[in-house]
Amino acid sequence: MMANLCRHLREAALQRPDELAVAVQQCRLGKVSYLELTQAELERRSDAIAHGLNAIGLKAGMKAVLMVTPGLDFFALTFALFKAGIIPVMVDPGMGVRNLSQCFEEAAPDAFIGIPKAHLARRLFGWGKHSIKQCIRVGGGRLISGAGESLAALEGRGAAMGAYPMVTLDEDALCAILFTSGSTGIPKGVEYSHTMFEAQIAALRQDYGISAGERDLSTFPLFALFGPALGMASIVPHMDASRPIKARPELLFAAIRDYGCSNLFLNPALLDKLGRAGESAGLTLPSVRRVISAGAPANLDAIARFAAMLAEDAPIINSYGATEALPIARCDTKQLLESAERTEQGGGILVGRPIAGVQLAIIAIDEAAIASSNDWTTLAPWEIGEIVVKGPMVSRAYYQRAEANNLSKVADADEVGSLWHRMGDLGYLDDQGRLWMCGRKAHRVDATAQGAFAKRYFSIPCERIFNTHPQVKRSALVGVHRHGDKIPLVCIELDKSQACGNAKQLYRELRELAEQHELTRGIDYFLIHEGFPMDVRHNAKIFREKLALWAEKQLHL
Description:
It contains 18 helices and 28 strands. It is an alpha/beta fold. Among the domains are: 2-170, Rossmann fold, CATH 3.40.50.980; 444-555, 2-Layer Sandwich (GMP Synthetase, Chain A, domain 3). The strands form 5 sheets. Strands 2, 3, 12, 13, 14, 15, 16, 17, 18, 19, 20, 21, 22 and 23 form a 14-stranded mixed beta sheet that branches. A 7-stranded mixed beta sheet has the order 8-7-6-4-5-10-11. It has a 3-stranded mixed beta sheet with strand order 26-27-28, sandwiched between helices. The protein is globular and about 75 Å long. The mean pLDDT is 94.
C-alpha cells in the first residue's frame, strides 16, 4: 500500500480550508501576540516549498537535516519535505556538539536546512561536510549564516506552480530519521515509516480520545504534525523546545487561555514547573480535557499538584514509550495516584496497559543478541525482566547501525517478517496485565562478593524507597568498584527546604531504611551530591554514568 502523512493536510485544506492549523506565540517587549496559518495556508506554503526544493535539485529519497526553531516556517518545511519524499533528519540540538557531529556523519544528509545559528555551527564544526550539497537558510542573511538559498526565495520559486504532486511511498519505506536524544546512551537514528506515523495517529485518536476541533498546547514540535489528521490545531508557546524546563509558565498559561487549549503535551519536568506556578497563582485550567505526559518516569507529587488545576474528569495520562516505539502503554491520574504506595515501597512505576495494537512481553535479562523469540525465556507476572514490544508504531531499524539492530531487534517466530523491539527498560506485568517500570537495563547494579554474583539491584525501585526520606529530593543508584568487587552506592540530592547539618546521621537513617526492604537490603554506601547531571530536554533523566565516575573518585579520595 502507498502512503504519505501529508494526505491528511490535503484533505483538511479541501474540507476545512479556513480552520486554524498552527498558531505560534511571540513575546516581544513583554507583549504577547500570535502568528497563524489556516489549513489552506499551510497546504499552499508547503506545496510552494516542495516545488522550490525540487527546483534546486533536491528529490525524493534524498535526506535533509532540519534545524529550525518551531514556528510557521518549521511546519511548512516539514510538510514540504514529506510531500516531496525528501527524508527529514531530526536531531536534538541539546545533545552536544560531539553527538551532533556523529549524527550527521551517520545520516550523510544531502541538504542542511537551518536558522543562521545552526549554519554557523555547521561551518564551525564541519557538520556533514562530506555529504551536504545544498544549504537553505531560514531567516538571517547569507553573510551571517554562510548558507546559500533562503527559504523565502525557495518558496517564491514554487509559489506560482500550484498544487504539488505529492510523492507516495510504500507504507513501510523510510520517510524520516529521528535521532534519540542520547540521554540514555549514544544517539541513534530511528527509521520512521508512514505506517508508524499513521499508527501513532490512530493511537492518539482511539486510546487517548483526541477528537476533531480540539486545540493542543504543543511543547513537542513533531506532535503538531498529527494535527491535520486529528482535526486539532497546534498552539506553539514561546519557549526553547530543546530546553522546555526553561519555559516561562505565564506564557504557556496565556496560550492555553487565549486559544482554549483542550490538550497539553508536557514532559514531567515541565508538568512539575507549571503545576508549582499554577498552585502559587491559584490558577485553574477549565478548557483542558487531558494532559499527556511522556519522556521520563512520572513524578506522583507533580501529577497530584497539576491535577488540582484541572476539572475532575480531566485525566493526566502518563504515556510510556521511546523514540523507537511510541506510544506503548498508558495510565491515567487515578491509577497513578492509587499506585503511589506500591511505588514508594519499591514496586516500580505503573505505566499501565498496552494500547490497542501493541503486544508486550517480559523476558529474562540478557546482554547478548537474541535472534528469534523462540530463543528467549518469557517471565511470569510479577517477575522483573526486560520489556519487549511489537506493533505498527514500533520502528523496524536504526539507520546505519547494524550492531544496534542486532542487539535490539528480534525476529518473531510466530509471524514471518514481524520484529520485536527490546526497549532497554526493565519491568514486570502484574496479574491485571499492567506494566510496571523498574528502570533502564543499563542502570541495574549486579553486585558481587569476592568476585561472584551476589545480588541484583534495580534503579527505580531502590530510588523510590530512598526518596521517601524527608531530606531526599531525589536519589540515583550507581555501581562502583571497591576491594575488587562491584557494590551498590546511592547518590543523594538533598531537598534544600530540609536542613541537613549531619551527613553521617542522614546516611545512618538511609541504611536503616534500606534494611527495611528486601530490594534495598545490602546498600551501605551513600554520598551527597550538590546537583545531579540531568538531560537537557526532559530535566528528569539522570546521567548515572557521570555520577558513577564521580562516586568512584569520592570513595578513593
